[in-house]
Design brief:
The structure is a single chain. With about 230 residues, this protein is mainly alpha-helical. It has one domain. It has 11 helices and 2 strands, in the order E-E-H-H-H-H-H-H-H-H-H-H-H. A two-stranded antiparallel sheet has the order 1-2. A hairpin with a 5-residue loop joins strand 1 and strand 2 (about 15-20). Helix 1 packs antiparallel against helix 2 (about 90-105), helix 1 (about 20-85) packs across helix 3 (about 115-125) and helix 7 packs antiparallel against helix 8 (about 185-200). It starts with a strand and ends with a helix. This is DUF1016 domain-containing protein. It comes from Adlercreutzia caecimuris. It holds the Pfam family DUF1016_N.
Length: about 230
């Protein structure tokens, strides 16, 4: 780590000079970290792994609970709007504006007129609440609601839930006409398409839920580090 070497002045005198070996310092530091880890032993390492798993699992359940409650709340809101509107279409438009204005003042931007309108459409599209998939976010459902047929909506809803697709991945598969490609070919081709999609689409991470702007709006959290809505749709 510290090396000594002889050096000579111009007048011929000789002195001992010390040189710091940087690589040796790094090596000692690394060995120190390794020794510290070994000092705790495998038992401490296992304790860390167990605690890490507990934190990760609890965090995942907490985020999933937030997402589930938000989607369920939006379905309930849509149901109440439809009940209040009845057959009065013009009244329904004014009702959405009224509710949006008041809810936004009290709960934040997650209740803008456009999103409240989607809540109404959500209930009309999925009138049976038990048919909803708890794994899917509001962003997933907003994408699915744009599909024309009930068969398409059910297909993408189940695929996204079963394969753990993020909303971006769902959007990508819709735009690539995944559903149509499966219907257009023989069973062997369908297997090939499914294999291709599974290989190309990574599974969604749990922390993506809390980065969803709709979740942040629902919780009325600050705007730092948000994704833009256009990036998700």
């Amino acid at each position: 780590m510290v090396a000594a070497e002889l050096a000579q002045y111009e007048d011929g005198r000789v002195h001992l000079r010390y040189r710091l070996d940087a690589e040796a310092v790094v090596g000692v530091a690394h060995r120190g970290a390794v020794m510290a880890q070994l000092a705790f032993g495998e038992s401490a390492q296992q304790a860390y792994e167990d605690i890490r798993a507990t934190v990760a699992q609890s965090r995942g359940r907490a985020l999933a609970a937030v997402n589930h409650e938000m989607v369920r709340a939006y379905w309930e809101i849509g149901k109440r709007i439809v009940e209040e509107q009845g057959e009065r279409a013009e009244y329904g438009k004014r009702l959405i504006e009224y509710l949006s204005e008041r809810l936004t003042k009290e709960f934040g931007k997650g209740f803008d007129k456009r999103n409240v309108h989607y809540m109404k459409q959500f209930y009309l599209t999925f009138p049976i609440v038990n048919a909803l998939r708890s794994q899917l976010s509001w962003t997933h459902y907003r994408l699915i609601m744009k599909l024309k047929s009930a068969e398409q909506r059910e297909f993408y809803m189940n695929e996204a839930a079963n394969e753990n697709w993020s909303s971006r991945q769902l959007s990508r598969q819709i735009n690539s006409h995944y559903y149509e490609r499966l219907l257009s070919g023989a069973s062997s081709y369908q297997d090939e398409v499914r294999t291709e999609v599974k290989a190309l689409v990574p599974r969604a991470r749990v922390d993506e839920v809390i980065k969803d702007p709709y979740v942040l709006d629902f919780l009325d959290l600050p705007e730092d580090n948000r994704y833009a809505e256009k990036d998700l749709e």
